Amino acid sequence: RGKSLFGYSFVQVTFKDSTDFYWARSRVAEQLGTAGAMLPDGVTPTLGPDATGLGQVLYYTLDPPPGMNLAELRSMQDFV
Fold first, then answer.
1. Which of 20, 46, 47, 78 has its CA 20 to 30 A from that of 37?
2. Dist. CA 18–CA 25, nearest whole Å
């Protein structure tokens, strides 16, 4: 599940309660690294802080270089 706001996008990844937290986090980090390789220079996806099942668990951000067209950034987010 994902959401995009003006200049900010995030993806929420939900696992079963029985999933090992560290395993899940490492899998998301791995996929984030793969996705980051497809983004333009200066755009870096970031894994957010840990959270409980009652809130968002993992966050990432796309930080574009200055002057980047936000429509292009949105297209990249939609692709990821």
1. 20
2. 14
Measure the CA–CA gap between 59 and 2, rounded to whole angstroms.
Answer: 10
**C-alpha distances in Å from residue 24, one per residue of 5, 20, 50, 52:** 26, 6, 11, 13
Amino acid found at 56: Q
Tell me, what's the pLDDT at 23? 94
Query: Do 10 and 60 form a contact (C-beta atoms < 8 A)?
Result: yes
Beta bridge partners of 74: none
Q: DSSP letters along 8-26, please?
A: EEEE-----TTS-HHHHHH
Amino acid at 49: P
pTM, two decimals, is: 0.53
